[in-house]
Amino acid sequence: SGFRASDHVDWEFGTVDRRIFWEPEIYQLELERIFARTWLFVAHESQVEEVGSFVTTYMGEDSVIVARAADGAINVFLNSCPHRGNRVCFASSGQGRQFTCNYHGWAFGLDGNLKKMPKMGLYKSTPGFRMKDWGLRKARVASYKGLVFATFSEEAPSLDQWLGDFRWYLDAVLDPEDGGTEFLPGGATRSVMACNWKFPADNFVGDIYHALWTHLGGAEPTLGRHGGVIVDNNGSYQVSVNGHGWEFNDSFYGNAATMGDRELLRYMKSRQDAITARLGKFRADMWGSVASATIFPNFSFLPGYFTFRTFQPKGPLKTEIHAWTLVPKDMPDDIKDRFRRGSMRTFSPSGILEMDDGENWEFSTQANAGFVTRNQRLCYAMAPAGKLETQGLPGHVTAGQLSDANQRQFYRQWAVMMDAATWSDIPLDTPAVVQEAAE
Ligand code: FES
Ligand code: FE
């Protein structure tokens, strides 16, 4: 077709062709070249702790089951029966010993292997039929500090290589305390937005700029009450690795302050020294700061609120958001509950801050119905602020959180992956600080 994604993104100056948020052909290529071959977040280990526990989710538009098997391994496999293709599991989560298809009763184990089916003898006597050829198609699985990822690509680099130096920053939210983290039990909030999946991912990867305008109404009353949450380019940064990005400042409980709960802030303050001793001041300040992050392509989180979410693509013009709240396991129950309520008040479908964002992404998408409109380009030209003073930080770090630096890296990664025929055509940032761990 002659399509070249790199013609659609100018990551040097910073422009993006609007058609990448609209065209069905580009969307189909995203499913193939991005979602079918990169690592995607599928679950937190705490959601599948017991043998037989499972959740269902999506990798791109592929429905998958994430299940803990008897050997302790977490398996991820397609949720579509190889017999006639029916969906195998209809629950969003649960506990069981096997998955039995509704249509003809084929039964699959917690590892996705085909175990038995009605009239099994008829297959056994079929020449060339082997049970092991007809299990549910398995993905590669790996986890990083509680977060489980999967990929359908055999060629993809290890998860550790893919996350690279971003792991050093991720530890600020995934490893602030002994005992690990968990998603608060009770499941995800799910909501649908009529927007392209890249707008929310791009917002979280580096767009604090919108908060100064979009969230003025929602955030100001709570900010005012607790005082002093400032967004500017002093003591703030953006970091990018392999298209993943995080913009943040050194406020320790900046985001958290907008939840309007003094007890929560008191608790966070009481943990500040311990977290600093564990991670050092720089990363301790990232724990609850004014910040947002995206792990490429569609897994995002907000420190402070500790909302973690996937932006599941449902066609070029529709996105389903699944959101959870992540907390240290050892946190006192009443504080966990305060985080639950705080993050619901702010970043749930009816939260005062999330409600602000939705229409912006929907209209940014829908405007491209106009032929002339979608042949214009969008502006990602805001340059990083001045010189970077903190040297030696891993990843591509730029000064100041008010810039389009991370978005340009996000769309650069997007374009490189869209144009690459194989993984060997996709260069990865070399980790500088974090030691390689075996997958
Ligand atoms: Fe699943 Fe026939 S489609 S058993
Ligand atoms: Fe927002």
Highlighted features:
439 residues, alpha+beta, Naphthalene 1,2-dioxygenase Alpha Subunit, Chain A, domain 1, Rieske Iron-sulfur Protein, 2 domains, 9-stranded antiparallel β-sheet, 4-stranded antiparallel β-sheet, 22 strands, 23% strand, disordered C terminus, binds FE2/S2 (inorganic) cluster, binds fe (iii) ion
List the helices and strands and how they pair.
Layout: E1 9-10, E2 15-17, H1 24-35, E3 40-44, E4 53-59, E5 62-68, E6 74-78, E7 93-95, E8 99-100, E9 107-108, E10 114-116, H2 120-124, E11 140-144, E12 147-151, H3 159-163, H4 166-174, E13 181-183, E14 189-193, H5 198-206, H6 216-226, E15 236-241, E16 244-249, H7 254-257, H8 262-279, H9 281-286, E17 292-295, E18 299-302, E19 307-313, E20 319-328, H10 333-346, H11 354-366, E21 377-379, E22 396-399, H12 405-419
Antiparallel strand pairs: 1-2, 2-21, 3-12, 4-5, 4-7, 5-6, 8-9, 9-10, 11-12, 13-20, 14-20, 15-16, 15-22, 16-17, 17-18, 18-19, 19-20
Helix pairs in contact: 1-12, 5-12
The protein binds FE2/S2 (inorganic) cluster and fe (iii) ion.
The site of fe (iii) ion has 6 residues, from loops.
What does this protein structure show overall?
By secondary structure, this protein is α+β, with helices and mostly antiparallel strands. The protein has 2 domains: 5-25 and 174-425, Naphthalene 1,2-dioxygenase Alpha Subunit, Chain A, domain 1; 40-142, Rieske [2Fe-2S] iron-sulphur domain (Rieske Iron-sulfur Protein), CATH 2.102.10. The protein has 12 helices and 22 strands. Strands 13, 14, 15, 16, 17, 18, 19, 20 and 22 form a 9-stranded antiparallel sheet that branches. A 4-stranded antiparallel sheet has the order 6-5-4-7, with no helix packed on it. The chain is globular. It starts with 8 loop residues before the first strand and ends in a 20-residue tail after the last helix. Residues 224-228 and 434-439 have low confidence and may be disordered. The structure holds FE2/S2 (inorganic) cluster and fe (iii) ion (FE). Fe (iii) ion binds next to loops.
